[in-house]
Amino acid sequence: MPKRATIQDVAREAGVSVTTVSRYLNGRYESMSDRTREKIADVIARLGYRPNALAKGLKAQRTQTVGAIVVNMGYPFCVGFLRAFSRALGAEGYHLMVAESEGDARRERQLIESLVANRVEAIALQTSGANNDYLEDLAREMPVVLVDRAFSLPHAYAIGTNNRDASREMAWQLFDLGYERIVYLTEDERGIPTRTERLEGYLEACRVALREPEVMRVRRGDASSFADAIARVDAEIRRGRRTAVYSANGLILMECYRALRQLGHPVPSALGLATFDHPDWADLVDPPLTCVRQPVDEMGEEAARMVIARLRGEDVPEKTRVLASTLVMRESTGREQSARIGRDVSR
Amino acid sequence: MPKRATIQDVAREAGVSVTTVSRYLNGRYESMSDRTREKIADVIARLGYRPNALAKGLKAQRTQTVGAIVVNMGYPFCVGFLRAFSRALGAEGYHLMVAESEGDARRERQLIESLVANRVEAIALQTSGANNDYLEDLAREMPVVLVDRAFSLPHAYAIGTNNRDASREMAWQLFDLGYERIVYLTEDERGIPTRTERLEGYLEACRVALREPEVMRVRRGDASSFADAIARVDAEIRRGRRTAVYSANGLILMECYRALRQLGHPVPSALGLATFDHPDWADLVDPPLTCVRQPVDEMGEEAARMVIARLRGEDVPEKTRVLASTLVMRESTGREQSARIGRDVSR
DNA sequence: TTGAAAGCGCTAACAA
DNA sequence: TTGTTAGCGCTTTCAA
Known about the structure:
Helix content of chain A: 40-55%
Strand content of chain A: 15-25%
Structural class of chain A: alpha/beta
Largest interface: A-B, 51 and 51 residues
Number of helices of chain A: 12
CATH class of the domain at 163-294 and 325-346 in chain A: Alpha Beta
Low-confidence stretches of chain A: none
Strand order of the largest sheet of chain A: 2-1-3-4-5-11-14
Largest sheet of chain A: 7 strands, mixed
Shape of chain A: elongated
CATH superfamily of the domain at 163-294 and 325-346 in chain A: Response regulator
CATH architecture of the domain at 163-294 and 325-346 in chain A: 3-Layer(aba) Sandwich
Oligomer: homodimer
């Protein structure tokens, strides 16, 4: 492994000073003879010289790098967000360091610290909520964007969607479409605003519609935790009640989708199916799946916009952006139609 | 944005030298009084001091960071690889910088250069093949792993799967299952080894089985490019021939899946469906989809293992790893069964 | 057990 | 138009 050439090497070879090379590297050709410029260009090419961004960052106190922590890069939400975020940042010359927390608060904390150690200029993360004090401190010194799980911290930015409204609206629609029962599938919602809000939206709809809520808590990866829910759905339908399964996210519906279909009840007439998230398989299955589509791309772009504006020194007074989701009604609940729920909000 | 505390600040506050603080930071407590250690710990906590990894990296010539470039973070293959790679690296204390090339050679080149500028210690990438000369040069100075599209460069590592064998085997199976025609769907394969090998595997099977190959080239995002393929399938079946659609990757099958099903031919009796890749919707659709499952996780882990070993200074003589894919036969082609194709190979 | 000082590769103020 | 030099925050050698 030969050592990489440095600016010193280039300067020596070209017979000029490092300052001149530095000027060249930063495109300040105006005060430089053509001959010098060509000489430097030659040497750089010959030596395969690449500037050291570490040294540059150390000096300039800027790394042009932003950090992102998501729960799991495999989740559609996370992938979608990361892609949009990374694209928007890349367009402004920023790099992205990505890490996965697996939803573990301790790991999340370590990851944040190590991003800080690497002097990322901003951090976007889907936080567990357990590091909020630390994040609030951090947010005083650098842009911090809480994504998806939008806890409210005075100095941090937050980007989320109108979970409660969208969830309430979806449940309303389902009742409206004639489902007598809605079995709501969720993972343990405690401490996770997103899940809590979606659940509350559902509960509100039940209250208004004067229906008994039916919340089934499942654990991903644990098939037995789904068995109860599936049995419940089966029982309701056998009792002659049109029943809809409404899932708090696409992954848990995915885990029980087959089993639900294998009950054999006709969809959508006896059994309705709806989920938060817009999994890529939503319109491959038959009948196509009703979903709440979150504006993932916009969330990533918006996060990048906030970060970039702040790093440019601009004022970004709206700390919180709540983007509107879209109800995508498909044949799995009977009728086709699609509508944005409410409007985007900044505050 | 207050300036972050430096090792100098800590030293001053604690009334010791920076050397001592540095020793503390690196856990060399053996030559340090307990009092000193406690004092330093206090000050660090009070100041919220975080070491600057840039300065450390500049001095140590090590950044503990690895770069990865994939075509698109949304592709199942890329996500799977990135996750496994990132996990394995994280376990060894490495960070990951991720970027997307969108399959564009120029952009890929820029990304590589900027990863180099950031002094990543190794690079794993799914390359277009257009930067092979540059990559070969680079591979002389740092570990470079070509993933998936495993071009053979003397100094670079390569990790791929046995595309040709798996593809041939899949086609054989399909003929064996009684499909008279296999319509092969692919994107333009020129210059992309993965696609070329898969196509060749299919062509070999046709040759051996004495069947006319039927290759349809499609372009993702361009519905009209799929229309021909779909019409062709329809025509064959109407002519009374059992026909299978075999797709070179999951994304292109996804784009035409609905349209194929809407032809109305019974699956698997008249129409068979099979694809390379193992999309997450493969067993949600009805009937479940026959696939060639690549060992994505192992590829990520293996890439990390190679990189880490090399960075530790160990010798890694096997430059190339070809991992075996698995044929997952499901009801979309009639019979359920699954088999690994061949064995993993190192050389 | 502790510290002084050189130096990693770069930028920019100042000087020529 | 070009160069000298201090310093970014850290590690490490050498000395005390």
